[in-house]
Amino acid sequence: MQHLVDTNDFNDKQLIQIMNDARAFKIKMPSRLLQDKLFVTLFFENSTRTRSSFEVAAKRLGASIVHLDPSKSSTNKGESLEDTFENLAAMEPDGVIIRHEFNNTPKKLAKKGLTPIINAGAGNTAHPTQALLDCFTIMEHFNLTSPHELKGKTIAIVGDIVSSRVASSGIRLFTRLGLNVVLVAPQPFMPKNDLPKYENLADVIDNVDVIMSLRAQLERHKAPIFEDYDEYAKEYCITKERMAQRDILLLHPGPVMRNIDISDEMLEDKRSKVLEQVKNGVYVRMAILKLVLES
Ligand code: CP
Questions:
Q1: Cα–Cα distance between 279 and 284 in angstroms, integer?
Q2: Would the pTM count as exceeding 0.70?
Q3: How many CB atoms lie within 10 A of CB 80?
Q4: CATH no. for 7-128+278-294
Q5: What is the 252 CA–ligand 1 centroid distance (Å)?
Q6: Cβ neighbours of residue 234 closer than 8 Å, sequence gap 6 or more
Q7: Ligand 1 centroid vs 166 CA: distance in angstroms?
Q8: Ligand 1 center to residue 125 CA distance, Å?
Q9: Ligand 1 pocket: which of 50, 67, 97, 275 to mutate (most atoms within 8 A of CB)
Q10: For ligand 1, what atom is nearest to the CA of residue 121?
Q11: How many angstroms separate the alpha carbon of residue 200 from the centre of ligand 1?
């Protein structure tokens, strides 16, 4: 049974297939490849992009989606996550797409082997479909046909890296593909790992092809880290002044904290591909649903 707990669940051949299928879907919408298939979405944390993107992707392929809202479910009567999942799996869906606050939830449910699990974001550890759509967006920008052609490009991840599942999955996928990943953050937002680290973007900006800006994930901070995010923004907000005329692709997984992560002006700049990421998210998730069911 094929799951997507993190991107390492896909081998190189499958990664290439996802990128090829997503590109083909973007050029021409496919026929109803997944007609009669049914997915369940189970989001224990808020989402705008990922949940709706999966729903659009499934419907574009002719599949049906049932959404269980945990706030209105029997979770509120004390039913455990495992029991909730096993009851949903008993209805024989073709896969469950889950977002949860705990890092190990998708893996734990996948181990039950009841139905394919697609991780739509778990704690601060994994958001594989975001990493895959980011990979697709970078490939598209540089006109590359294989993810392995990304080797040698340099991406700077800027912001609250330690709290970010987007960064966690991105770092694993990008380093696997041979990208140089550099981290730019104030000390409290910096994770512990062996990657090159900078406190100031100015020290590395001339050497990067891509900047991925990240939101300060206030909901994951046990206590406030900065009192004043306007002060933080003076150092880390991606502005036109900071980018100057450099030919750098600017990404952000969303939601963007305007004028803290990226300035209003820079979001309008053609180097910013934030909404293109969202558009690509549908094609990449279509490719993922197809692959999971084909496997
Ligand atoms: N990028 C992302 O995960 O956005 P949502 O939280 O809105 O799904």
A1: 9
A2: yes
A3: 10
A4: 3.40.50.1370
A5: 10
A6: none
A7: 9
A8: 14
A9: 50
A10: 3
A11: 27
| Contact (Cβ atoms closer than 8 angstroms) between residue 177 and residue 19 | no
pLDDT tens per residue, range 62-97: 999 999 999 999 998 999 999 999 999 999 999 999
Distance 130 CA to ligand 1 centre (A): 8
Token pair recorded at residue 216:
């300060």
Ligand 1 closest atom vs CA 127: 3
Q: Please state, in angstroms and rounded to a whole number, the distance separating the CA atoms of residues 275 and 285.
A: 16
Question: What is the atom index within ligand 1 of the atom nearest the CA of 281?
Answer: 1
At 220-267, the pLDDT tens digits run 888 888 888 889 999 999 999 999 999 999 999 999 999 999 999 999
Task: Compute φ and ψ for 183, nearest 5 degrees.
Answer: -110, 135
Kindly state which CATH superfamily the domain 129-274 is placed in. Answer: Aspartate/ornithine carbamoyltransferase (3.40.50.1370)
Domains 7-128+278-294 and 129-274 share a fold: yes
Query: What is the domain partition of the chain in residue ranges?
Result: 7-128+278-294, 129-274
